[in-house]
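anyone seen this seq b4? input:
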Amino acid sequence: MALEDDIAILSRAPLFNLLDRDALRLVAFASENRILRAGDMLFRKGDRSDGGYVVSQGAIALDAKDDGSPAAFVAGPGSLIGQAALFTRVERPATAMAREPSTVIRVTPSLMRRVLEEFPAAASAMHQAMTEELTRLSDGLERVRRHLIAIDGGEIPARKPGQDEE
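predicted toks r here
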C-alpha cells in the first residue's frame, strides 16, 4: 500500500484522526503493514502486545471468549485495535483473527512516543480525547452501579456535585 493510502486510512482511525498531516506521515512511514489471509491469527488472548493496529483492508474478528461462540466485535477499515497497546505493553484481552484477506498497520509504543515527542499538539489532543473517554466510561459505570443498588432495594448514596442525572 502506498504511503498516501496509509495516511488516508490512519486519518480515519480513532486517536490518529487527531494528528496533523506531518504526524500522520511519520506514523505511516515508520509503521509496519501486515498482510493476513482469511483465518490468520493477528494475536491471541493473553499474548503480550507489540503495538496497536489500524485495519486498512478487510475485517478482523475480536473474540474475548474461548468457547468458539461468534466474535463479539468485527473491526473493519479505519478501526483501531489495541488502543492501550499504542502506549505500553499490555496483555491482549481478546483473540484477533482475520475474517477475510486483510491488511493492518502496526504502530509500536516506541513509534507513538516519538510522534508525541515531536508533535506536542498531538500529545495534548490525544490526552484530552482519552480523558474524555475515561470520564464517559466512569460516568457510565456509576450509572450502572446506582441502578444495581436500586434493583437490590438498597439506598442510593447522595450524588456528588456535578454528577450526571440518570
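The chain is about 35% helix and 20% strand. The beta strands are 32-36, 41-43, 52-57, 60-63, 73-75, 80-81, 95-98, 102-107. kinda curious what u guys think
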